[in-house]
Structure formats: structure tokens, C-alpha cells
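Quick one, T. Sequence first:
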Amino acid sequence: MLYNVQYGSFYRSGVAMVIDDFISNQTVGVELGRRLRASRIAYPLTQAQLAERAGVSQRTVANLEKGADVTVASLVSVLRALGLLSRMDLLVPAPETRPSDLLHERAPRQRVRPSRKVISGGDWKWGDEQ
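C-alpha cells:
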């Protein structure tokens, strides 16, 4: 298995692993861990050195590299220590302003409420009618 630093991906038999909607969360975590490990090694840093730079435990770095669950704060700290935090904009881009919001001078949405259920069946009657 070779790591391509330019594209940040692993190659198995010459094919990069693609992270898409069809693979499990566990597989995504394992692949993310492999990529972080390859970045750490390319830096070159030991797990202990990366942990010290990131302000997390060595166990946290090891868990990240295995694809185990860690906190978002720990992931952000490790990405920052590896110089990869700026790539988070690619992962979750900032929301864009819709032209209709500008046209109507609306403030950006803060939340989404569930739609009201329409009760069907029979004729509609006021609450005081029987």
C-alpha cells in the first residue's frame, strides 16, 4: 500500500480508495486514520511527537490512526499539528447566501422546523362541530 502525498490518498493495486456514500462509517474512519498516519510519517513525526504538538495523548493519536472514535476537538488539534486544518473548508464548505435571501433581505436561516402534518380523511370540521 503506497501513500500519494499530492492527492492525500492510499493506493491499493494502483487504485485510490474513494470515500463516498456507499462505504460504512467504520471504513471511513479507518481510511481517515490511514491518511493521518501517512501524513504523520511524511512529516516525519512519531506518535508521541505528534501528540505533544497537538496537546493530546499518544493514545488519542493511536486511536485516530486506527479509525477509533475520538472527540472532534482531538481531531481538530491533530489536523492543526499536521498543518491540515485549512483543508476542513473542503470537507464542510461555508454556506452560501442564496440570491432569494438577498432579494428579500432576509437573515440567514438559523434552524429548520419540521413541516406540519396534514390530517387527511373525512371532511374538515371546526373543533366545536360534531
